[in-house]
Model the fold of this input.
Amino acid sequence: MENKHKSLGWGKISDNGAEIWDDNPIFLRDRVDYKDWLKLMFYPKKFFLYKWIKKHKAKLRRDFIREPFRVLDVGCGTGAAVIDLKKMFGRQAEIVGIDVVRLQIELAEKKITANAVWAQVGCYDGKRIDWPDGYFDAIYTSDVLGHVANVPAWLAELSRVLRTGGALAMFAESALGRHAYLRRYLLARGLNIDPHSEFHISLYSKAKLRELVEDAGFGVKKMFSAFWLSFLVHPDEFYEKLQGQKKFFSLRLLNKILYKLKRKLHPYSTAAAELYGLVEMLTLGRWLEAQGYVILGRKK
Done:
């Protein structure tokens, strides 16, 4: 069943001041096949996160697997990843999504129904996850850690509900790394390009992120940074804040040209930019320290 729902978009602010994170699922058909996995190449963060959980389930099947396979999406937004994960792992899998914003959960419930899958979503307080110790086989969480006030306690709670050996598939926002040359240049001159800066309260370096995750009881297997050349491939991320400046004439001019060119050539330009992101992660991602990291790990 194809989903006709139009996304509200990323980073929209609701009437009560909460930031709404909305997207549509990648997998639109009832069954996930090789065409869907090829499509996933244009979603580089999810490519690594989804593949890590899929690989983990395959490992459990070789060793010992209990049924059903259980996955928790922490900070599920309006349910796109919940739907994708349900379609990936089938009817027998137990997929649960939780979020602190009630409006997002209400939208997720509607989206799940529209996509003809069964999955459970619900609100939580951002601190206590209402599931027993070691209940889940895998945890998926993306673009959440930077919004958490007490990161060590939050990570410890994720560790508590994950079984020993369970998979952690996370994308975490971060402080600007040493290779984020242009963003650091602008920040040093008073311009923060982060489009969600008012909501990001916990941003750490790559080394500190690894330390926090490991202190919570996870072994970090891989960390990837993405979109080092974001100024070139994602000029829309810079556009609103940069074009509102009177200084940085050369950068503003180049950004405007790239922004209009990308819009004119959309969707081909967007697809090319995302595919570049995947290639960059596969080749340079382990060594780059830019902004934001895919973290793949397992509970010790």
